[in-house]
Amino acid sequence: MLSRLSLFAAAVVVSVAGCASNPDDDSAATDANAPAASEPLVGTYWKLMTLDGEPVPVADNQREAHLVLDAQGRVSGSTGCNRLMGGYRLEGDTLTFTQLASTRMACPGEMATLEQGWLATLSETAHYSISGQSLVLKNAGDRTLARLKANALY
Questions:
Q1: How confident is the model at residue 154 (pLDDT cuts 50, 70, 90)?
Q2: By the 8 A CB rule, do 59 and 108 touch?
Q3: CA 137, CA 127: separation in Å to the nearest integer?
Q4: Is the pLDDT of residue 6 over 60?
Q5: Rg, C-alpha atoms of the chain
Q6: How far apart are CA 20 and CA 48, in angstroms?
Q7: pTM recorded for the entire structure
Q8: C-alpha to C-alpha distance for 122 and 99, rounded to whole angstroms
Q9: What would the pLDDT profile of 28-38 be if each residue is shown by its tens digit?
């Protein structure tokens, strides 16, 4: 008898809770439609997608061109052929890269061109903007130099 009473009480609680929901409350739908939060600049793996408006090639058996900024003001990554490293300064939307260096392995054809362009772009970068998973690097004249996409590091 006690277990039937417990089941009945549980059924009443579930029914009342279901009736208490507000069909006009679309907060769940609003949350689902909300724009994705932007990735943080620091600590995110940023894959180079376009350079001067052109898609970036990825060679077989090579790392993709990318960068990661750490909290200590250092940047590391790849040119698509060689590793890159250096420093950066960040203040508001101002971003500059300093003391950039790369390893010196020989790069085949288009990868050598990509490396030169990527390093030049980083040296010319003056501003950035992030929207969702997209990072845009711009020069001092606000011209888009490169577009990058956030990739998970985990």
A1: low
A2: yes
A3: 6
A4: no
A5: 25
A6: 50
A7: 0.75
A8: 11
A9: 444 455 556 89
pLDDT recorded at residue 26: 44
What does the alpha-carbon distance between residue 24 and residue 2 come to, in Å, rounded to a whole number?
38
Which of the two residues, 77 and 33, has the higher pLDDT score? Answer: 77
User: Buried b / exposed e across 110-128, counting CB within 10 Å, b at 16+?
Assistant: ebeebbebbbebbebbbbb
148: exposed, middle or buried (C-beta count within 10 Å: 0-12, 13-18, 19+)? buried
Q: What would the mean pLDDT of 68-90 be, rounded to a whole number?
A: 97
Could you give the CA distance from residue 48 to residue 53 in angstroms, rounded to a whole number? 11
Q: CA-CA distances (angstroms) from residue 4 to 10, 17, 104?
A: 10, 20, 78
- Indicate the DSSP class of residue 42: B
Helix (H) or strand (E) segment spanning residue 152: none
